[in-house]
Amino acid sequence: MTPAKPSSKKPRPPTIRVGGLELLVAIAVLIAWLAGVGIVAQTLLVDVGCLDMRASWRGEVGEMVICALAAGPEGWLFLLYVAIVPVATGVWLRRKLSSALKR
User: Fold this and answer.
1) Contacts of 45 (CB under 8 A, 6+ apart)
2) What is the pLDDT of residues 43-99, one digit of tens each?
3) For residue 77, what are the CA distances in angstroms to 19, 38, 57?
4) Distance (Å, rounded) from C-alpha 7 to C-alpha 99?
5) Which end of the chain is more exposed for a tag (fewer CB within 10 A), N or C?
6) Which DSSP state fits 51?
7) pLDDT of res. 100
8) What pLDDT shows up at residue 11?
9) What is the largest CA-CA distance in the chain?
10) Residue 62 burial (10 A CB sphere; 0-12, 13-18, 19+)
11) Could you give the CA distance from residue 5 to residue 60 in angstroms, rounded to a whole number?
């Protein structure tokens, strides 16, 4: 008998599978979240442009955080709203990737 030859096939990389319904829900949540950022800022009376330092997108994000923190508890609620969708998306993608790695 001849010894078994090692497989020359490369292992397939893990693939994250996203269904059509998941994609539609994710897009709808993203659109609602983006539309709601301004509405939530106005509702909570948070002035996210209080410093007027728009040098770059990093400056805009930094300005938004500084101004929201200066607004007190309302600013904290605004930052929670702004952070919830990216954090939830990261958790969802991490679970998808871990399940793809298990296969």
Assistant:
1) 71, 74
2) 999 888 787 766 666 678 888 889 899 999 999 999 999 999 999 999 998 998 888
3) 32, 13, 22
4) 25
5) N
6) S
7) 84
8) 76
9) 80
10) middle
11) 59
The two tokens of residue 72 are 């007190």
Burial group, residue 46, by CB count within 10 angstroms (0-12, 13-18, 19+):
buried
Dihedral sign, Cα of residue 31, residue 90, residue 40, residue 79: negative
Question: Using an 8 Å Cβ cutoff, are 89 and 80 in contact?
Answer: no
What tens digit of pLDDT does each residue of 8-28 get? Answer: 677 777 788 888 999 999 999
